[in-house]
Design a protein that fits this description.
Distance between the termini: 75 Å
Number of strands: 0
Number of helices: 4
Order of helices and strands: HHHH
Oligomer: single chain
Radius of gyration: 27 Å
Length: about 130
Amino acid sequence: MLKKIVHSYGALLSSAGKIVALLFLCIVFGCAFVLPLWKFAVSSPRAYTIAVLACIFLFFATFVVKKAISIGFFRFFILIAKIALVFLAMALSIWLVLLGKRLFALFVIALAVIFYGAISEFAKRKSDKI
């Protein structure tokens, strides 16, 4: 019985120790990484913004290159064309709605659906020949 009590208290102290260790790691991480970033952002906001945007761009460029290599150039080009078509159609139709030309926005969406189908069909026929 004494062995069970000691084991229970040992498990409780072990859990408490893990919580204290996690808290310590969070404090160290905050002091080591977040505090210098905050200081950089406060002291030079323009340089901080440029640095953050450059990091985001590098991450995005790395992702794009890896995706292009993994799926092949042609399929990657088709994927980019589809994404660009959807985003451009959405932006144009939102712009037209804000201008009060809802009928033209509906026409843009219909054309986007047609062009999306055409791109998909072109890609399917081209991949069948390859």
